[in-house]
Amino acid sequence: MKYPKIQNYINGAFVDASSGRSLPVISPVDGNLLSEVPMSTAKDLDAAVKAAKKAFPAWSKTPIKERVQVFFRYKYLLEKNLKELAELVQEENGKTYGEAVAEIEKSIELTEFATSLPQLVTGEVLEVSKGVECRTEHVALGVVASIVPFNFPSMVPNWTLPNAIALGNCMIIKPSEKVPLSCGRLALLLKEAGLPDGVFNIVNGDSEIVTAICDHPGIEAISFVGSTKVAKIVYQRATSNYKRCLALGGAKNHLMVLPDAIPAMTAQNVAASMSGCAGQRCMAASAMVGVGNIDHIIDKICEEAKKIVPGENLGAVISKESKERIEGYITEAEKQGAKILVDGRNAKVKGKENGTYVGPTVIDYVKPEMSVAKEEIFGPVISIMRTKTVDEALAIENANPYGNAASVFTQNGGMARYIIDRASAGMIGVNVGVPVPREPFSFGGWNESKFGVGDITGKSSIEFWTKLKKSTTKWNPEAGINWMS
Ligand code: NAD
User: Fold this and answer.
1) What does the pLDDT look like over 315-364, one tens digit per residue?
2) What is the pTM of this model?
3) Is 214 a catalytic residue?
4) Is the CB of 8 inside a 6 Å radius of any atom of ligand 1?
5) Cβ atoms within 10 A of the Cβ of 313, count?
6) Can you give the residue ranges of every domain in the chain?
7) N or C: fewer beta carbons within 10 Å in the chain?
């Protein structure tokens, strides 16, 4: 085992979980055992909530301009330790080193946004009638929780922790049990940046601890990022306990390719979108709808896909089960009559025979009713459907229950606008394969890709992590009284 057994992080110290139950942490890169992660219990959560509650009065009363100083230092520490943080992400998640570096760079950008929060939460004040002032202030909620998935061990925790904490909350994070190492490293950087003990805590575990988080009366709000199946469970349970909840779910993102699209640029974008992070991105292109004759573009997509080599510029998928599931989808599509143009099954990387790799896969002549067209595959696979018209393509996109992202490739601005207006997704790209809005724009899908109001990052996160206090004041008795004063 390369690293010591993982511990929880409570009140500024690493501590053992109370249960003896644990799971192995396996590197998808080569199948090596990295560590063991404890499956915490409600008792461990309770200790974290107690620590966070104790820290909350002083932290929330610290002026925001002082609170964000921690995040200026944290941002610097992320930059200073970028290489080591990226190596850890690569090791536990399996993505390439370049992708891991990009993930840390995104964490830095998210932190940079948090340092700008004092400029964005100034509140409002107005004399609403003679001598009477109304004023609004953003007030921290208290103890909040963030439950995160495996695919971005650093970025997704950093979607929530800098903003929630800079806004005055104390946080408990529940890392994915598949990639629990990076979060512990972030805790140390936050401590080094001067974050007081108890403001940030980590409780490791699986569904048992997620249920305990949803049920704990001391937790005010929960953000969740993961699959739609679990997002629904968490959203329902958290809100039935009267908590504020924002739960981001899975995705099935459609790219619509029109015959006038620039072939080389489109092919590069499609290939990069479907294979980046081995297709394990909620913004990955998973289905493509070609409108009219786009054979020349599909040929180029295959050429690009063949340049993507497992173990070189393509990382591993998270586990053996995941590899089997993805390959099962490809085999099923083949049996149903789809044509496998580039086949990533049975990929092997020399010297890393126990790594879990799937090569880039391009499937053509997919029918909308096939599983590869409808379901989230979460692997480096693109399923191509063909239509005669843009409206037919939109009908396919609209019929999928998810709504994270959609993209169109065309040179026709009017047609791009037509598709932006009609695609049923929260984030739309035009000639962009991965339309992630960068800070200060907020991130969030629609439909079954998100449950709850608002988005998870950017300005929208201010509404989620704070409540508004409205005060009405009058200091001039000579103004008299009327019904509005
Ligand atoms: P997951 O839903 O399996 O797990 C997410 C979290 O929920 C983990 O911390 C896990 O421990 C916990 N969990 C798992 N099963 C649970 C259960 N039955 N009850 C309670 N908690 C449970 O997701 P994953 O496999 O870690 O991540 C991949 C998924 O996340 C994909 O569907 C992907 O699209 C989605 N995702 C979405 C976004 C987005 O912004 N919409 C971003 C990243 C990932």
Assistant:
1) 999 999 999 999 999 999 999 999 999 999 999 999 999 999 999 999 99
2) 0.97
3) no
4) no
5) 15
6) 8-250+444-470, 253-401+405-430
7) N
